[in-house]
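Minutes, project check-in
Item: structure for the 117-residue chain
Input as provided by the requester:
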Amino acid sequence: MAVHARPAAFEGRDGASYSVEIVSDETGERNRPFTAYLLFVRWRAGDPVASGHLETDYLAHADSEKDAIAKVGALKLSEVRSLLDGLIARSVESDRQTAATEKRWWDAMREEREGDA
């Protein structure tokens, strides 16, 4: 970001494009009042509207917002890419698990009718 004055962008392992932004929050903790993490915004090809996002856990804590952001900003692009790849992998696995446990609407309706009989 410092070199190009814009957020970095990556192609995710899922084929989507992602831009990344460093986000900071106040923690409410006296010893480390600020934290920062990465927010990846997903863009689909040809679509000017964001189609989703992924975010890391907190990556840095500091006494000031500026310091927390600087710590995350010191990550190498390869490290940021690795974090994105891990988030995508977990998201895909979570989607698979959800799909495996969800019933199709017609199966749920049939079971409901059978329960009334």
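Outcome recorded: The beta strands are 9-11, 17-26, 34-43, 52-55, 60-62.
No further action items on this chain.
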